[in-house]
Specification:
single chain; 307 residues; mainly alpha; two-stranded antiparallel sheet; 11 helices; globular
């Protein structure tokens, strides 16, 4: 029972935050302003850092460092989701005031799927130690794929799940409101907002295939893995509204993600033979992110002068 108390407390915290988010802070649909997005992002980051202090007090220095490194890694990898989110909302012409609702329910699904992936991954590692080599190879391939397809727009119209949904699910395509389903002529029909939710959920599952193995290179503590994921996901929506208009300018972001995925892939492959210090991993992630931001800013200025 004592071992279950942290998980019970975490579940209570997650449910409380979800209820406050949907029922109090965002009860009425509205366009999220840059100021509001900044304030909410700052609140989520502060909450994550406070939780990091709690981990340090409860578990000690190394688990706290693992939480912070995992949180930063997941936050950085989640930035790649934003490229897809921008394209999805643009493709379906979803009004800005309804985007938060879709992202909210997308995150509820992401919490469930990621917990399942984490538990499955840890069980595989516990039962078959050699699976670390497979996860490492998967991350190396993902890093190569991101680098190869860098700065290419996502092709939403060719998404297999979207094609299946359009053929299978009754749909009212001209609906522009915030509901996922409508009751029309004696039957329930889906709205474009529901299709967007499906695409976002599938996109997160695809991204989780990269991000979950990546954090296994940082720690194998299920509580640290899950909480670092949760806090990174919770802050994703506000970060989206803060960066949605400028994320395409981060030209070298995917270069940085490719490098980091390659590094954690190598770290996983070497895990049973050579331990790369956690402090080195954190330093590499931070320096790579800073380098990508600076390089993107320099390129943006050069392109502006050239035009």
């Amino acid at each position: 029972m004592e071992a279950a108390l942290p998980w019970i407390g975490l579940l209570g915290l997650i449910l409380t935050l979800l209820v406050l988010d949907l029922s109090v802070f965002n009860r009425k649909p509205h366009v999220i302003s840059m100021q509001e997005a900044f304030q909410v992002s700052l609140a989520w980051i502060s909450l994550a850092l406070l939780f990091n202090v709690f981990i340090w007090y409860w578990k000690g220095h190394d688990p706290a460092l693992a939480f912070f490194t995992g949180y930063l890694l997941e936050k950085m990898l989640s930035l790649d989701n934003m490229f897809v989110f921008v394209m999805i909302f643009k493709y379906f012409a979803i009004a800005p005031r309804h985007q938060h609702r879709v992202l909210f329910w997308g995150i509820v699904g992401a919490i469930v799927f990621r917990l399942a992936f984490i538990l499955l991954g840890l069980k595989l590692i516990e039962s078959f130690e050699w699976v670390l080599y497979i996860f490492g190879a998967l991350l190396l391939y993902s890093g190569y794929k991101i680098f190869k397809e860098r700065n290419q727009p996502a092709k939403i119209e060719t998404n297999a799940i979207l094609k299946w949904a359009k053929k299978t699910i009754p749909l009212r395509e001209d609906y522009k409101g915030r509901r996922f389903f409508l009751f029309r002529k004696g039957m329930w029909v889906a709205t474009p907002l529901f299709l967007v939710l499906i695409v976002i959920e599938v996109s997160d599952i695809v991204f989780a295939i990269d991000s979950i193995p990546a954090i296994f290179a940082i720690t194998l503590d299920p509580f640290i893995i899950f909480t670092s994921n949760i806090f990174a996901i919770f802050g994703l929506r506000s970060l989206y509204f803060l960066l949605a208009n400028v994320i395409p300018r981060f030209y070298y972001l995917q270069h940085a993600l490719s490098l980091i995925l390659g590094f954690v892939g190598i770290k996983l492959i070497l895990a049973n033979h050579f331990k790369i210090p956690l402090g080195f991993s954190l330093s590499l992630i931070v320096l790579t992110l800073i380098g990508a931001i600076i390089a993107s800013a320099i390129k943006g200025k050069r392109d502006k002068r050239a035009n």
